[in-house]
Amino acid sequence: MLVFHGTTLWRAQQIIRDGPDPNFVEPGGVERAGSFCVALPFGPFEASSRPERYAVLKAAAVRREGREEGGPALLLIDIPDDIVDLAVIDDLPLSQGFIVFDEGASLEALLAVWPRLPKRVVFFKGESS
C-alpha cells in the first residue's frame, strides 16, 4: 500500500536511511515520537491534515525556530498490506485516512522490513499560509 509521510527534507532523508525512530524528540522538545504516522494518498482527511500541508507547516515551524531542514517534503513508502494490517485497529480504521504504527508489533514489523521497502522523497516548495 502506497502511503505518504509529510515532513521536512532533512527528516525524510533521515527516515529513509534509518527508518522511523520512536525515540525521536523534536529539537528543544521533551516528548518522544513513540509512533510513525502515514497518510493514505487520497485520505479522507481534513485540509490541515493533508500530508503535503503538514509538511509545509512543519517546514515553516522549523524555520521560525531558526533551523533549516530543507523545506517541505513527502516521504512515499510502499508498505506491504500484512504490515499495514498490524497497525489498523477498530479505533483507527483505514477509513480515517491515516495509519499509526505504534510501538510494539506494528512498528517492529515495519522496521524489520524497512531496508527492503520501496521509498522515495519528493521535495516541493510550499506556502506557509
Task: Characterize the structure shown.
The protein has 129 residues and is of the alpha+beta class. The protein has one domain (2-22, 33-123). 31% of the residues lie in helices and 22% in strands. It has helices at residues 9-18, 51-64, 81-87, 105-113; strands spanning 2-8, 35-39, 72-78, 98-102, 119-123. The strands form two sheets. Strands 1-3-5 form a three-stranded antiparallel beta sheet. Strands 2-4 form a two-stranded antiparallel sheet. Helix 3 runs antiparallel to helix 4. It starts with a strand and ends in a 6-residue tail after the last strand.
How far apart are the termini?
30 Å
Quickly count the helices: 4
How can the largest sheet be summarized? 3 strands, antiparallel
Strand percentage lies at 15-25%
List SSEs in N-to-C order: EHEHEHEHE
Mean pLDDT reading: 88
Q: Going across the biggest sheet, name each strand in turn.
A: 1-3-5
Q: Given the C-alpha coordinates, what overall shape results?
A: globular
**Quaternary organisation of the protein chains:** single chain
The number of distinct β-strands equals: 5
Q: Summarize the amount of helix as a percent range.
A: 25-40%
Whole-angstrom Rg: 14 Å
How many distinct domains? Answer: 1
Secondary-structure class? alpha+beta
Low-confidence parts, pLDDT < 50 over ≥5 residues? none
